[in-house]
Amino acid sequence: MNMILLWTVVCAMFVGHASAGTESIKNSVLTLGVDTSHGGAISYLVDNNDPTINLINCHDQGREVQQSYYAGPDPYRGAQWSGGPWPWNPISSGDAFGHSSTVLSLNNTGTSLYLKARPLQWALNNVPCNCTFETYITLDANGAFVRNRLINFREDETDYGARDQELPAVYTIGQLSELWTYAGDAPWTGDSLTQVSYPVPGPPWQGFTAAENWAAFTDGIPQHYGVGVYHDNISSFLGGFHRTQGKGGSTDDNTGYIAPVGVRDITHNDEFVWCYHLAIGYLATIRGYFSSRRGMPCTFPVV
Question: What is the pTM of this model?
Fold first, then answer.
């Protein structure tokens, strides 16, 4: 899913409004939206104090904040991408040919948002996955708690083994170009944070260790405002930046990338439930939010 397309999809651009097809929930601090015209990927995240700036990049269907899974074979049904064979790889929003995944059901209570989708295979032309993606989102203070569930029903029962998985893939706007984490040996003690260096342009992305299980892209202002992602118990991360640092909005090609990387064998009948947190704000606020969410139970609610 770390690919660059040559066309741009509609994204949230207008003051206080998201694009057509966006379902959103809001609290006193932030507003979060999913794009139902692109499989329900998270495409909209704004600070209510400045709703003119969508912090999520949705330049193409490989961006946004979304589920993406990898399994064999290589190639899957002859798929080719990025100059080589491409595996089984369904993603939330759609495929590299511009087709969109289908939202099967959605429930927005105003305080929580649930959706179920039939994703497409990224590197194939309009080929649905024999699987479903579900997402359940709630907001709290300056963050969001996102629960995901993959239900697989592949006809091919071959076990292709475990692979690295993006849990999730997060693409942020180009204005946020400083990548931060904690890389020391005294996590959650208030020890100094680490700014991660990375090659430009990416991909390939830079691997790094996040000892507190989170990372954030921020601007260069002294207090460092931005967006972070936290996945409990995952310390292996990827990150980097594509094109020009320090400028660009939600529809521009410039983007930051973060992914907590877990290892999972996605079998033919797998049911995979996993959770993560997003947070916005100044860097110290993001870190504090994630600290207070450590160890939260990860279960998918009955809907």
Answer: 0.94
Summarize pLDDT for 90-115 with one digit per residue, the tens. Answer: 999 999 999 999 999 999 999 999 99
Cβ atoms of residues 217 and 177 within 8 Å:
yes
Task: Give 18-56 pLDDT, tens digit per residue.
Answer: 666 899 999 999 999 999 999 999 999 999 999 999 999
Per-residue model confidence as pLDDT tens digits over 60-84: 999 999 999 999 999 999 999 989 9
Helices (H) and strands (E) in the chain, counts: 1, 21
CA angle, corner 22, sides to 18 and 26, nearest 5? 70
User: Residue by residue, what is the 3-state secondary structure of the chain?
Assistant: CCCCCCCCCCCCCCCCCCCCCEEEEECCCEEEEEEHHHCCEEEEEEECCCCCCCCECCCCCCCCEEEECCECCCCCCCCEECCEECCECEECCECCCCCECEEEEEEECCCEEEEEEECEECCCCCCECCEEEEEEEEEECCEEEEEEEEEECCCCCCCCCCEEEEEEEEEEECCCCEEEECCCCCCCCCCCCEEECCCCCCCCCEEEECCCCEEEEECCCCCCEEEEEECCCCCEEEEEEECCCCCCCCCCCCEEEEEEEEEECCCCCCEEEEEEEEEEEEHHHHHHHHHHCCCCCCCCCCC
Contact yes or no for 181/193 (Cβ under 8 A): yes
Question: Hey, is 210 helix, strand or coil?
Answer: coil
Domain at 22-292: CATH code: 2.70.98
Contact (CB, 8 A) for 180 and 287 = no
Do the Cβ atoms of 157 and 131 come closer than 8 Å?
no
Q: How confident is the model at residue 202 (pLDDT cuts 50, 70, 90)?
A: confident
In terms of DSSP bridges, do strands 178-181 and 214-218 run parallel, antiparallel, or are they unpaired? antiparallel
